[in-house]
Amino acid sequence: MSASEKVKAIAEQTIGKFKKEAGRAVGNESATADGSAKKSKGDLRGAKEKAKDAFKE
Predict the structure, then answer these.
(1) Distance between CA 26 and CA 40 in Å, rounded?
(2) Residues 6+ apart with CB under 8 A from 29
(3) How far apart (Å, rounded) are the C-alpha atoms in residues 42 and 1?
(4) Can you point out the beta strands (E) in 1-57?
(5) DSSP state, 27?
(6) pTM of the entire predicted model
(7) How many Cβ atoms are within 10 Å of 52's Cβ, its own excluded?
(8) For the segment 1-57, what is each residue's pLDDT rounded down to a tens digit?
(9) Which helix (H) or strand (E) holds 49?
(10) What whole-number distance in Å separates Cα of residue 31 and Cα of residue 54?
């Protein structure tokens, strides 16, 4: 996995998780949904990079 893509994936996952939990804490469903979406996007980015690495080997 390229280092920059790995960092982006981890950042999206972390920000998404934080935003989701913050939204839950204050009862903001929009922030909760947005956080879930961002975390999922980070998960997919990480999975894509792992798949690319698997085919390189």
Answers:
(1) 21
(2) 23
(3) 14
(4) none
(5) T
(6) 0.80
(7) 12
(8) 578 888 999 999 999 999 999 999 999 999 999 999 999 999 999 999 888 888 876
(9) helix 29-56
(10) 35
